Amino acid sequence: MLRSPLGAIQRFAIDFLSEVGRVAILFGQVIAWTPRAPFDWRQLLRQMVRVGVDSVPVVALTALFTGMVMALQSYRVLVRFSAEGYVGSLVALSMVRELAPVLGALMIAGRCGSAMGAELGTMRVTEQIDALEVLATNPVHYLVVPRVWATTLTLPLLVGLADVIGIYGGYLVAVVMMGSNPVTYMDNSFQFMGLSDVSSGLVKAAVFGLLISLVGCAKGFHTRGGAAGVGRATTRAVVLGSICVLIADFFLTKVLF
Amino acid sequence: MSADAPSTSPAEAEAVIHLEGVSKAFGEQGPGRKVVLDDLHLEVAAAESLVVIGASGTGKSVLLKHIIGLMRPDSGRVLIDGVDLQSLSTREITDFRRRFGMAFQEGALFDSMTVEENIAFPLVRSRRASKREIRQRVQECLELVRLEGTGPRMPAELSGGMRRRVGFARAIALEPRILLFDEPTSGLDPVMTALIDEVILDLKTTLRCTSVTITHDMTSARRVADRIAMLHQGRIIAEGPPRDFDAAADPRVRQFIAGEARGPLTTPH
């Protein structure tokens, strides 16, 4: 059936607001259930390993090549103004303020947000979540709380690592490939960088981690319709998680910097 | 209110499970709305084994989910031991469910855990027993469902019948007073069906708990039931002991028992 453009926009707006509402309700439940015993520390650590340790290669590779590309692009532009000495500053500030948090978060949305959507979605359609409730265990407490806090705590650590690797990537290109002076490069890298630049990037990462995990868990938790439903939940967890990261990035940048 | 505080008259409290005018419908208002339970009344007495039969899609599983509080009725009341489930908060209902054990249709085992960990799960979460006591209880439960030695295996390595029996073992781990079985024999061969029925009867004798079994398998229903009730279009249309049930005059019951393709159950309304 053909829909009018206005009807389609209306439908999209309603769907989007319903999704936001579900995520907000889940966030409220996570806050309410976090202090309640028994807190499953083993689950939290297991999730931190999954989100953190297991994601190190993909985040490191992304940061390394982003730093290298940044250095390559900026060197070729800045050399026109004889300002190639500032490549280090440009790469370092771009990495810690923007690129490491956003690209790191997008990688985690693809890798972990999707996994949360698929795992919880499968548990929903195979009645494992119902089984938890029947066994006097609140599923938000047992499944969602550890995932949300693990991602929120771990993403800043990953982004800290990405900052270092990204700056090193820039160093490799500028010094090894372009022949810049290594001491001047490192000196310039940190000359204009304040502690607030680094800490704001890490705060961004924590908020992104919270959003990605909440969206992933909400999509999985409300899965309907068997294997096809799990597929839809997984895709939507990545798409909606990534959109949330980009929208939140704008507002956080406005507030933090 | 507290999970233990009665909210009903003494007469209502006599039945362990009491459904009073329960209605439930799905979908938005209009012709597409499907009424699954329609002003349903049902009582189950202490230590009684009730089997609910009915064609596929008549709301048997929805009925079970109302009894355990996984679904809330649109109208009517569900009383367990005299306590109205709707009067309980989410936290209270979570604790209240320790009175129940539920075995799901396909077992609903946690696939990331071994058989042992699945059965130990409710014991670990309730934090009432030591590790040694938990191990001992897991072994007892495995013996009750005749699955000794399968503890270290993963659910994916088990057959359908074994997965269901592990589900039974997990359901009885906390020694519940009420046991619910959701289609425990559907899709199994006759030998495995007979074995599952024997396990259910064993559990009934050993645990002396109240049980509600959902099935559309008449042979199985006759074996395990003290009383059979038939659900059709959201209502109980016939109930009684298995022997009386076989002699029912209602053509809908007769069609179901005989397993005939044509008759009042399959005539469009």
Structure in words:
The complex is a heterodimer of chains A (257) and B (269). Chain A starts with a helix and ends with a helix. In chain A, 84% of the residues lie in helices and 0% in strands. Chain A is elongated, with a radius of gyration of 21 Å. Chain A is mostly helical. Chain B has ten helices and ten strands. Chain B has a six-stranded mixed β-sheet with strand order 6-7-8-3-9-10, with helices on both faces. In chain B, β7, α7 and β8 form a beta-alpha-beta unit. The longest helix of chain B is centred in the last third of the chain and has 18 residues. The N terminus of chain B is likely disordered. At the A-B interface, α5 of A face α3, β6 and α4 of B.
Strand order of the largest sheet of chain B: 6-7-8-3-9-10
Q: Judging from the principal axes of the Cα atoms, what is the shape of chain A?
A: elongated
Number of distinct beta strands of chain B: 10
* Average pLDDT score of chain B: 85
Structural class of chain A: mainly alpha
- The radius of gyration of chain A is 21 Å
Protein topology:
The complex is a heterodimer of chains A (257) and B (269).
Chain A: H1 5-33, H2 41-51, H3 56-78, H4 87-125, H5 128-134, H6 139-177, H7 182-191, H8 195-221, H9 226-256
Helix pairs in contact in A: 1-6, 2-6, 3-4, 3-6, 4-6, 4-7, 4-8, 4-9, 6-7, 6-8, 8-9
Chain B: H1 10-13, E1 17-26, E2 34-44, E3 49-53, H2 60-67, E4 75-80, E5 83-84, H3 90-96, E6 100-103, H4 115-126, H5 131-144, H6 160-172, E7 178-182, H7 190-207, E8 210-214, H8 218-224, E9 227-232, E10 235-240, H9 242-246, H10 251-258
